[in-house]
């Protein structure tokens, strides 16, 4: 009983940060994201009586720090499917793990779809999103296509993501600028528990529904300038919450700030580019496709960018026929 799934990473435009339920991973607020077609995880899951325990191969290695969390997610899926079968799981990313690129999002989306597919569970997108969410919150947004909204909900059944627009809806590009691919010291799961220690967190939550309404309108109008302004302001607000948590979380590196200033300069010179950022030093820089080469040329002149990955809006998680083992 084997199945393979390929899941995109997603970048949050309006962020998920803080939970009301740590176990179910219910978020404090709804969030909006875009799937990234250039960054993905492929996962094969095989359930079989021949396995006496779960066997996890993560990026080619049998020993992985992620194994415990993966097995916990398999346990949840086994409980839903009412089976005791153990599994072999092989999973591989085409990008560095734990670098501020959401590897847990694509990882748990791929694991969910592959495991549920292997068990022949025949679930719809909403059901898959609900299961993926319990592995990693942001993973629920990697299940549907393109531009996505995660409704925060107040129970497990009401907290899921759905597509707002398909991947080909808007010709914009996220240029991911990798500044560091080192594993971050504080994971986003741990970081989020500190959010409410920031005195800016309550005002953030007061305004977040309004922000979501505005970005959905900008998306509906394909208004790139307003879209850019709001995602950049949101990224800075998130960093402000992190920096004013206790203890303070500072994900920026000096190069991050240098590049932010460089992006502002490019805008002054007429190149419309806007950044967003998650729990890490790397930047996601958005441009309209017509400005893609111009931005990449400029970024190549910036010091401190190790690698650039250009991503179009991507489709959601799909089962595929090519297995990893
Ligand atoms: C900053 O989804 O990694 O990327 O639910 O604890 O696994 P867990 O957290 P995770 O948090 C992502 C936080 C973020 C913002 C976002 O993606 O919305």
Characterise this structure:
The structure is a single chain. With 325 residues, this protein is an alpha+beta fold. It is 34% helix and 25% strand. The protein has one domain (1-325): Ribosomal Protein S5, domain 2 (2-Layer Sandwich). The strands form three sheets. Strands 1, 4, 5, 6, 7, 8 and 13 form a seven-stranded mixed beta sheet that branches. The longest helix is centred in the middle third of the chain and has 21 residues, at 201-221. The model has no long low-confidence stretch (mean pLDDT 95). Bound molecules: ligand DP6. Residues 12, 15-17, 25, 31, 102, 104, 136-138, 188-189, 192, 278-279 line the site of ligand DP6.
Topology (elements, then pairings):
Layout: E1 2-14, E2 19-21, E3 26-27, E4 31-47, E5 55-58, H1 67-81, E6 87-93, H2 103-118, H3 125-135, E7 147-151, E8 160-165, E9 172-178, H4 188-192, H5 201-221, H6 224-243, H7 254-268, E10 274-276, E11 283-288, H8 292-300, E12 307-311, E13 318-320
Parallel strand pairs: 5-6
Antiparallel strand pairs: 1-4, 1-13, 2-3, 4-6, 4-7, 7-8, 9-11, 9-12, 10-11
The structure holds ligand DP6.
Residues 12, 15-17, 25, 31, 102, 104, 136-138, 188-189, 192, 278-279 line the site of ligand DP6.
